[in-house]
Amino acid sequence: MASLELSKNSPLRVGSVPYLVARPLNYGLENEPNIALEYAVPARLIERLRGGDLDIALVSSIELFRQPGYSYLAGLAVAGSGYVGSVQMFLKKPLEEVRTVALDPASRTAQALVQVLGKLDPALAGGLEFQEVPLGEDPRSVDCDAWLRIGDPALFELLQEGLPHYNPSEAWVRLTGMPFVFAAWIVRPGLDRAALEPFLHAFYEASARGTRAAARLAQEAAAEWSLDGEVIEAYLCDECQHIISPAIQARSLEAFGKYALTIGLASQSGVPIPIEQHSVPTSSKLLERES
Q1: Domains in the chain, please, with CATH?
Q2: What is the pLDDT of residues 236-252, one digit of tens each?
Q3: For the chain, how are helix, strand and coil distributed in percent, rounded to 5?
Q4: Distance (Å, rounded) from C-alpha 172 to C-alpha 180?
Q5: Inter-axis angle of helices 42-50 and 108-120, to 10 degrees?
Q6: Which is nearest to 167 in space by CA: 114, 238, 109?
Q7: Which of 50, 152, 233, 258 could be joined to 269 by an S-S link, Cβ 3.0–4.6 Å?
């Protein structure tokens, strides 16, 4: 197990994803003292987190249920309370005719969510077959009826090509009444709150800065991608949620973990202990309903 303490001579090793959706959470983190920030797709970050090469990473929430000893930062997440444009199952056939799905290797949570929905959602045909694609390969090129795509590439296929699609986040909310937590700041085993205490403010302040800057970040990305600014702003500021009620976050994670466990996609279902700053930033996009 990794040491409970951080070396006084080494920075906190932080990983995040290279997607627009993460910018409201990691905004300015690279400028914080004693934080070393690197970027990679979620699957790569998970490998480095498991190997002890990262102390904390913004990664797929399913990882919380696949290894013991994790904790996570409460109230911060990449979540959706309905439709989310950057996670899509694109269709080569009408939805009712889909029998095989190629899974984007970049995100393990999106993979698990689609497989859970294959059991939960009556809109999907029973007995779906899922094909995992090696990291770096294109799921679209696989001979399947549909393919899962995440991140900025999903937005490009959606907005530039207008492809027919099934939205997993929207389906989860329809079926469970809860938002879906795609990613969280997951803390490696052995690193406790006391060791993280000097750094907690940096993550919560980054989220506060980032949510204030989200509209500008969206417009900048839209200009770079030659896409409609209003559409990208609606995606980042309305579809995506970055500050979430810790209670709702825990409840949604627990439900996802239980469903994943029942179909063999998780090894445990109990939600790890959250690490919460004494005051969590507020936002007009806060998911605060706890029905």
Answers
A1: 12-81+180-275 (3.40.190.10), 87-176 (3.40.190.10)
A2: 999 999 999 999 999 99
A3: 45, 20, 35
A4: 7
A5: 110
A6: 114
A7: 258
What is the total residue count of the chain? 291
The span from the CA of 158 to the CA of 176, in Å, is 25
In 142-255, which ranges are E strands?
Answer: 146-150, 165-166, 180-187, 240-243
33's tokens: 């003292």
Distance CA 183, CA 264 (A): 20
- Give the residue among 92, 130, 127, 96 at the shortest CA–CA distance from 114: 130
Query: What does the alpha-carbon distance between residue 251 and residue 158 come to, in Å, rounded to a whole number?
Result: 30
Q: Are 51 and 208 in contact (CB under 8 A)?
A: no
Instruction: Give residue-wise pLDDT tens across range 27-81.
Output: 999 999 999 999 998 889 999 999 999 999 999 999 999 988 999 999 999 999 9
**pTM, full prediction:** 0.89
What is the 8-class DSSP label of residue 34?
T
Pair 146, 92: CB distance under 8 Å: yes
Structural tokens at position 31: 């400028």
Residue 8: band (very low, low, confident or very high) from pLDDT cuts 50, 70, 90: low
Q: How is residue 172 annotated by DSSP?
A: H
